[in-house]
Amino acid sequence: MPSAAEKPAAPIRWIEIAVPAHPEAVEAVSEILDRVGYNGIAVDVPLEGGPHIVKAYVVYDHAARVKVRRVKEAIGRLRAFGLGPVGEVALRRIADEDWLESWKSQFTPIAIGPFFVRPSWSTASAAGIEIVLDPGMAFGTGLHPTTRQCLEAVGRLDLAGRSVLDVGTGSGILAVAAAKRGAGRVVAVDVDPLAVRAAEENARRNDVSVEVALGSAADVPGAFDVVLGNLVADVLVRIAADLRARVARGGVLVCAGIVAEKEALVVRALADAGLARRRRDQREDWVRLDLA
Ligand code: SAH
């Protein structure tokens, strides 16, 4: 076996620039990184809360050093605006193969309920209702267990001709799934402008009609037969009354992203708002509740 020294090292081809940013600062940080990034930027959105991570990849050539310096200067100026905390600029050198891996390996084709979810760069095919997704702009990660739980609910509910509201749509996956299952009107909202953009693109990519808007449950007029909210427990508690207000008579609220230890808090907040638990699903530490 050759020693490490004999083994030809993969050439360094890219520099990853990663900047942790408060959700309020994500768009400004993204603009800065977008100026230097090859093929745009990616944002990792932690479901559990905490800072988003904005990432860009810069070709490792003679211009890289200047680009990195410009990013650091611009981020420094941004901090002075006090937009919300922006963390330190982290650099990582990566080889070509690793780059493709880190970009795409986390998200592979997968069957969930009646759906077959396929990343846009994959040519895999399988039986089921196909959802083609490019989470690149809004999410760095693949399908979270809570997303799966919600997709299963969307796959099970009778949606034909029904109206659906997806609160915290992210990549738009649940809204697209609902539209594909024959929902009448589908509205999707998110407080993150990057998610709004990604959801619009994914709706287009899947050739379905979804009304995507920036905002939350409180900003949408009217009531819906099905309201989806794959949010975190604290947010669900905070906007419980707004979510309730969006559920039409006889409608259902599906919410997820609830860590088991916070389930009671969420159930109580939604009960106070007038919704009772009808169904419950737990996967690992994550709870999904269907309420009416
Ligand atoms: N629905 C997607 C994404 C879930 S991630 C899925 O199931 O995979 C949660 C999303 O909620 C994020 O995109 C975040 O920006 C958004 N979000 C957080 N707080 C929100 C709020 N108060 N109102 C609306 N969206 C919110």
Q: What's this model, at a glance?
A:
By secondary structure, this protein is α/β, with parallel strands linked by helices. It has two domains: 92 residues, 2-Layer Sandwich (Alpha-Beta Plaits), CATH 3.30.70; 155 residues, Rossmann fold (3-Layer(aba) Sandwich).
Beta content comes to 25-35%
Runs with pLDDT <50, length 5+? 1-7, 137-141
Arrangement of strands in the largest sheet: 10-9-8-11-12-14-13
> Structural class of the helix and strand makeup?
alpha/beta
Helix content: 25-40%
Estimate the global geometry from the Cα principal axes.
globular
- Tally of distinct domains: 2
How would you describe this structure to a colleague?
The chain is of the alpha/beta class. It folds into two domains: 13-104, Alpha-Beta Plaits (2-Layer Sandwich); 137-291, Vaccinia Virus protein VP39 (Rossmann fold), CATH 3.40.50.150. The protein has nine helices and 14 strands. The chain has helices at residues 26-36, 64-80, 96-104, 145-156, 173-180, 193-205, 233-238, 240-246, 263-272, and strands at residues 12-21, 41-44, 52-59, 90-95, 110-112, 115-119, 129-133, 164-167, 186-190, 211-214, 224-230, 247-259, 277-283, 286-291. The strands form three sheets. A seven-stranded mixed sheet has the order 10-9-8-11-12-14-13, with helices on both faces. A four-stranded antiparallel sheet has the order 2-3-1-4. Helix 1 (26-36) runs antiparallel to helix 2 (64-80) and helix 4 runs parallel beside helix 5 (173-180). The termini are far apart. Bound molecules: S-adenosyl-L-homocysteine.
